[in-house]
Amino acid sequence: MNFKKSKFFNYFLLGVFIFILYFYHTYFDLNSIMDIIKESGRLAPIIFILIYTFTLLLMLPILPFTIISALIFGGFMGAFYNTIACTLGLIISFGITKSKADTSILKKVKKVKFFNTIKNGINKNFIKTILITRCVPVFSYGIQNYIYGLIEVKFIPYLIISTISTYIMNLLYTTGFSKIFENKKIEHSLLFLILFLSLIKGINYLYTKKIK
């Protein structure tokens, strides 16, 4: 019975992923997505969060949605909605890894080159590793969600630390992008983003080198 449930879950999950990939490939365009969200009225935040969450589950790039949130909702609310979506994606991904579903996607995650880097980091310093990986764009957020589930971290501390660090990062990105698109002190905003990303890149290099 458990085998049948697991097999059904695998097919269901595969079907959902195929549908989302089709939708993403067919309709994904920043302007089209923005129009859909803007025309949704009060449902705009919900539509945005759902699309963002599905993107995370598929381990696709989320930077375009960070830009969209800055354009539509502004810096602070954009960061808030981004964080809600990231948290939902985290919870669902964590649940998938614990569902005993032997999906091909989880097998691929285990082969990601920084899987062992994160695993070793968790064993050495739980909090520091989560903070750094969540703050470093080099580590794909969607892939991280599955990795942390597979290496069996404690869920509640992981959830709290991830949510806080994710909100801080989202706030930095959305406020930076919103100022750029508002054409207010664009030179300062661009310089800030360049310096910030350079700093993050440096931290990532030192961290991965130390772990290895």
Q: How is the secondary structure organized here?
A:
Elements: H1 2-27, H2 30-38, H3 44-57, H4 63-73, H5 75-97, H6 104-110, H7 115-124, H8 126-135, H9 141-150, H10 155-181, H11 186-211
Helix pairs in contact: 2-4, 3-5, 4-5, 4-10, 5-9, 5-10, 7-8, 8-10, 10-11
List keywords for this structure.
disordered N terminus; 212 residues; mainly alpha
Architecture overview:
The protein has 212 residues and is mainly α. The chain is globular. It contains eleven helices and no strands. The protein has one domain. Helix 8 runs parallel beside helix 10 and helix 10 runs antiparallel to helix 11. Helices cover 82% and strands 0% of the residues.
Short description:
The protein has 212 residues and is an all-alpha fold. The chain has eleven helices and no strands.
The overall number of domains is: 1
- Quick check: average pLDDT? 75
Please provide the count of β strands: 0
Distance between the termini: 43 Å
CA radius of gyration is: 18 Å
Order of helices and strands: HHHHHHHHHHH
- Helices, by number, come to 11
- Gross morphology: globular
Main β-sheet, in a few words?
Answer: none
- Specify the helix fraction band: over 70%
> What share of the residues does DSSP label as strand, in percent?
under 5%
Give the oligomeric state of the chains in this entry, treating copies of one chain as homo and distinct chains as hetero.
Answer: single chain
Decide which structural class fits the backbone. mainly alpha
List low-pLDDT spans: 1-6
